[in-house]
Write a structure and sequence with these properties.
Layout (H helix, E strand, L loop, with lengths): L2 E7 L5 H13 L3 E7 L8 H9 L14 H5 L3 E4 L16 E3 L10 H24 L2
Parallel strand pairs: 1-2, 1-3, 3-4
Keywords: Arsenical resistance
Organism: Nitrosopumilus oxyclinae
Protein name: Low molecular weight phosphatase family protein
């Protein structure tokens, strides 16, 4: 049975969605991957959809999801994309969580969001390599 990998941020409209999409692209057959937010937005940030589309990843059908305790309890690895506020993300301080501390793409320029996308891609590839080493 594949392990669950969970990416978390506040709105689940940018960083965690990009990480989920990259993980799906590079390792979906080895793990179940999802993303969620502590206060989900109503839709993905359009600029995030645009920069992912530029590299051939279509996220138009993705929707932000609400983080639940069971998602965290059932995950093999949980990655905090940059929610450092214990008030809005109390569940992320309960368990062994990987912290990437990546800037929120909200209200950033197109070039800045591309840099965030590329950083997330390299972090996801590194995480996948690390997980394979522990197989």
């Amino acid at each position: 049975m594949p392990e669950n990998i969970l990416f978390v941020c506040v709105e689940n409209a940018g960083r965690s969605q990009m990480a989920e999409a990259f993980f799906r692209k590079f390792a979906s057959n080895q793990f179940n991957v999802s993303s969620a937010g502590t206060t989900p937005s109503s839709q993905l940030h359009p600029i995030v959809v645009q920069v992912m589309n530029e590299i051939g990843i279509d996220m138009t059908n993705q929707q932000p999801k609400l983080l639940s305790d069971s998602m965290i309890e059932n995950s093999f690895k949980t990655v905090n994309m940059g929610c450092m506020d214990k008030e809005s993300c109390p569940s992320l301080f309960v368990k062994d969580v990987i912290d990437w501390d990546i800037s929120d793409p909200k209200e950033k320029s197109l070039d800045d969001v591309r840099k965030i996308r590329d950083k997330i891609k390299s972090e996801v590839i590194h995480l996948i390599e690390t997980l394979k080493e522990h197989d």
